[in-house]
């Protein structure tokens, strides 16, 4: 599939070469000791390291490995797959995705039936096979050979695709869409048939409408273009709901010359504008970059030269531009950026060092690290010929947040919720506003690292890498009362509540949690903050229509102190008339 690079050519016509990027090679693969030939995108783990997959050296019976590398170039082989263990994955090439609990999920070949696996890497670097495909017998209706890792849905289950198996309408099967629980129980949501698409190679995208979107490499048409041994057609874009309702949104290459491209091999991303963005391969036509509305209207943004196509999903960076890697059938592999208006810029051209010691054949998407650098792998060459890991500095600046005590810090752009997400990357000179919210029983006490701090608000300009800290402490005041007005309402109406404390709140405010012993009837906010210098805060309690009178107890808690009030919810006149 790959080719030997013979010489160095100039970049494509009309492309811009950017001189301001810094390329750093972080690691040269050795071969059998670390497997070699990294073939997929990197994923940053909760430990800050970058995890990836090495395909392995097939002729030496090497089934590949999982590795991690830090930004300071410390390389570790997390797990070398065992060719003698029938439960082990092999030849994983689709990259890893991070689950909500910090586990990394991947897909590969191998497994107990030799037809592919879903596996996970725990934060303790333990590799566990979650599912082995073709477990249901003849023709493998549960699918075979997943190319890409599953992604986690809102229901905490994982959703993915297999490249083959399922129906017998295609050679070796047309592929499937599946759901799998964290415990490994798999449900096939949809089996492809060919005209609706065939042989998906990429991960699914969970879009902001709650549905999953994906691409198929084959299928979609029987017009004779893209003839192959698997299924006729040049590929599709599809949508599927979490319950398995399937829709084909676009069929590629229905027009002569394939102006929309053909054979999408990689997944979609959702841009900041809500559109889907994807890429096609250079099979029978030049590769393309396209955008698509959620209802399937496709626009081609950029067309590469013949023989050029991207080697992974796009990355939309903080500047709004799209970043990726470019594979060519000749020479001139590149890392690039592309504006939404179609302006292409070469960031780095590979094999420009003697004997291609900088690597060639960048595989997978670029990953934006918390330090503002782009990280990826090259599949070929390097010092030993087995590929490399590299970083690229394109000028983004990182913001890192630490906090002590109990509280949360959020940014005005909603990219930081610390909490869980305590870092983000910005373009230079971006202004960032942070707000500290004390947990119930705590108060905000101090900022460090801000350009301008006023109470619980921090403002800074990202002129360089910044580190900000927020401090919270136990509240020195106690609750004195929780008062409702009125104390009795008809279902569907609201009551106005006031919670008070014994002394003015410190500058950072005092967090108060609010609970209801019948939240189906009376639902207050889960927490409120009494502002600094104030002794009370007002909030509303909403109610739901009831069939019988309900008495609801509301409790305010801050630290060890509590205050309570009782709200009576009665039947409204319209409800009473309905019941009669």
How would you sum up the major sheet? 6 strands, mixed
Q: Detail the poorly predicted runs.
A: 1-17, 576-580
Overall geometric form: globular
**Individual helix count:** 1
If you average the pLDDT, what whole number results? 89
The CATH class name of the domain at 479-579 reads: Mainly Beta
Structural class: mainly beta
What level of helicity do the residues show? Answer: under 10%
First-residue to last-residue Cα separation:
75 Å
CATH topology name of the domain at 479-579 = Immunoglobulin-like
Question: What do these coordinates show?
Answer:
- The protein is an all-beta fold and 580 residues long.
- Among the domains are: 398-474, no CATH class; 479-579, Immunoglobulin-like (Sandwich).
- 1% of the residues lie in helices and 44% in strands.
- The strands form 11 sheets. Strands 1, 24, 25, 26, 27 and 28 form a 6-stranded mixed β-sheet that branches.
- The protein is globular and about 75 Å long.
- It starts with 15 loop residues before the first strand and ends with a helix.
